[in-house]
Amino acid sequence: MIKSVAFVGLGAMGAPMAENLVKRQFRVTGFDMRPEARDALAAAGGHGADSARAAAEGAQALVLMVVNAAQARSVLFEAGALEALAPGAVVILMATCPPGEAEAIAAAVAKTGRHLVDAPVSGGIKGARGASLTIMVGASQESFALARPVLDAMGDKVFHVGETPGQGATVKTVNQLLCGVHIAVAAEALSLAEKAGIDGKVLFEIMGGSAASSWMLQDRGPRMLTGDPPVASAVDIFVKDLGIVLDAGRAAKTALPLAAAAHQMFLASSGLGHGARDDSQVVRAYRALNAKPANDT
Question: For residue 294, what pLDDT is reported?
């Protein structure tokens, strides 16, 4: 039974996820580059560490809520977190990674006698705070069973999608394809309506209750009408994630024309200087394309 958990990546989602582990009585030691994030975990009943290796020292599980596979590799191998873990420990990789990268990292972890659970998440900050994340797991049955109590503390929809690391990442890749396209097409619809003089607020009120609605339209649509909304997920996250989608499509020789078009619009928004803004602000690329000035504050 896992009792001690190391947690690396105490960002907007990682921090509440780590706190939910504390609430479930796990002994959580966290590391983040920002001292204030470590202090916040300590204030919530966890413990802060000065390095990823120190956080992982003797832990039975290591949760990696980092940005990408490169950061996961850096934490595990360069920073020495993997070798600091207890023998037989489980690494829970929750970053959005290319499937091949998750598989390769798992193979390297297995060589040390430890487990890797490929477990990307969906649900955003709201899901992280409410322990209601959707978690897509690719791992052997043994590894999944070992990690299950930790996963259940962070999400209420935990799916074992396959026996091989990388399969969880594949399902997350499909999820990001749908999310990215939904956000982009909502922005495209708004752009057309605005060009025709239709009030965006009225548009989304109508569309939100019609057959055209989607979760992303209802969540991101209102933010598109705000000059500079709080960042739930940045434009550059979808530049990265839709890039992963397209790489997966190439590897599988699968045509993904809608994902490619959405990627171009997120890329254009980033190129216009909006990469760090909320992902709803892909609408700024449409407004630039259609000669409608962005509502800068």
Answer: 57
